[in-house]
Design brief:
Length: about 260
């Protein structure tokens, strides 16, 4: 049947059903460009990135926007910013699926608290499986990551990058790259909310001050020890304690309800 013979009236979609499409932040676009740079130029751990000035000229943006992008890359555990020295690669970027997670939040399909819960579930799956798979190499990498985390106080970029890498290593211990990629994508969205002000203004949260090494050791060492001991119950408990601390930080920032999960 053609349009002329169809006597049924056309349904008009009310304009209220549409809403403006948010323009992607320039800093986010630069994040993607730098991630591609890491891959295309084969940059590996320890390599120094071009200076902020050089990156700004390359991508056609201001140094302030490039600095925001570098702080976001720190949240992903890909880059460490060393004051007075520059930005250095910590590891190769994994394929991310965070775009769809961001979209769900934009569409209010779920809350940040739900995403934190999903982060806990994914990390628990990975950590429990890692605890079942004795791996001396993993234990050494986790111990090194924890030492780096505890020793990073006073440098927000080093701290958030070390934190992301510690948790990513825990999940990677399960030996499933798809689980690791899903976890890292969710984790990145969560910590981006947790450190949004720092990314935007270079001003770290008040609770991320100096003398935090002991607090980070207290939160993370039980995770390491439980995985090494193969104690699944201790793994779950240690991750739950960390999860509660994360919710508390987000509640301070007004980003999520600190409600209790009861597990």
């Amino acid at each position: 049947m053609d349009a002329a013979s169809d006597s049924s009236p056309l349904r008009r979609v009310p304009s209220a059903a549409f809403r403006p499409v948010a323009r992607r932040r320039l800093a986010d676009e630069i994040v993607e460009q730098v991630r591609r740079l890491l891959v295309e130029e084969g940059l590996t751990e320890g390599d120094r990135l071009p200076s902020e000035r050089d990156l700004a000229a390359r991508v056609g943006a201001s140094r302030a926007v490039v600095a925001q992008a570098l702080r976001t890359l720190s949240l992903m555990g890909l880059v460490e910013i060393r004051p007075g020295s520059g930005a250095y690669v910590l590891r190769d970027p994994a394929t991310m699926v965070r775009a769809s997670v961001d979209l769900m939040l934009d569409l209010r399909e779920g809350s940040l608290a739900h995403l934190c819960e999903l982060r806990l579930w994914l990390e628990t799956i990975g950590a429990v499986e890692a605890a079942r798979r004795p791996d001396a190499g993993l234990y050494r990498r986790l111990a090194g990551a924890l030492d780096r985390l505890v020793g990073s106080e006073g440098n927000p970029s080093s701290l958030v990058a070390a934190d992301t890498n510690f948790h990513a290593l825990v999940v990677a211990g399960a030996g499933n790259p798809y689980l690791t990629t899903l976890y890292e994508s969710v984790h990145t969205v969560v910590v981006t909310a947790e450190f949004e002000r720092w990314v935007r203004t270079d001003e770290p949260p008040s609770w991320l001050g100096n003398r935090q090494g002991t607090a980070h050791d207290r939160l993370h060492r039980p995770i390491l020890e439980a995985v090494v001991a193969g104690d699944e119950a201790a793994v779950r408990q240690a991750l739950h304690v960390h999860h509660e601390a994360l919710l508390e930080h987000l509640a301070i920032l007004g980003g999520a309800s600190p409600g209790r999960s009861g597990r």
